[in-house]
Amino acid sequence: MAESITLLSQIKEKFGCGPVDVRTYSPLTLAYIGDAIFDLVIRTVVVERANRPANQLHKETVKYVKAETQAQMIDVLLPLFTEEEIAVYKRGKNAKPYTKAKNATFGEYHKATGFEAVVGYLYLQDDMPRILELIQHGISAIGMEL
């Protein structure tokens, strides 16, 4: 079976990015890219579900990408994490962020940062199947459906 060409591999090739040991990245760097990847996954599903005005798409997306929802997802996903994912999550959760979410508690924001760090880590490891598995399970387990 032919190896699939991923978005990450295409980006690295087009922009001349070399190999990097993802384990050396700070947890906030992982959370930074993880936030974007999580947002992209949710936006993709929301757009695929219906062609709607942008403000409606945004309102639907926000329900899933807010820190409160991510914190709820972590509560059900944590037991499913590998040892490596747990270590990344803890690093992200315990990081000292430079900002605070507008509509989240301190605890929710830290859990969400840990979750985003895991997503970022998996993305930079080129493991989109695992990201999608976790997001799908997390959304479903907290009683939300995309």
Written description of the protein model:
The protein has 146 residues and is an all-alpha fold. The chain has one domain (25-141): Ribonuclease iii, N-terminal Endonuclease Domain, Chain A (Orthogonal Bundle), CATH 1.10.1520. Helices cover 68% and strands 0% of the residues. It has 7 helices and no strands. It is globular, with a radius of gyration of 15 Å. The mean pLDDT is 93.
Q: What's the Cα radius of gyration?
A: 15 Å
**Between the first and last Cα atoms, what is the distance in angstroms?**
31 Å
Q: Report the order of strands and helices.
A: HHHHHHH
Please tally the helical runs, counting DSSP H or I stretches of 4 or more residues.
7
Helix content: 55-70%
Mean pLDDT: 93
Total individual domains: 1
Shape: globular
What CATH calls the topology is Ribonuclease iii, N-terminal Endonuclease Domain, Chain A
What share of the residues does DSSP label as strand, in percent?
under 5%
CATH superfamily: Ribonuclease III domain
CATH classification class: Mainly Alpha
> What is the total tally of β strands?
0
Query: Which secondary-structure class do the elements indicate?
Result: mainly alpha
| Major beta sheet summary | none
* CATH architecture identity: Orthogonal Bundle
Outline the low-pLDDT stretches: none
Provide the descriptors you would attach to this structure in a database record.
146 residues, Ribonuclease iii, N-terminal Endonuclease Domain, Chain A, single chain, mainly alpha, 0% strand, 7 helices
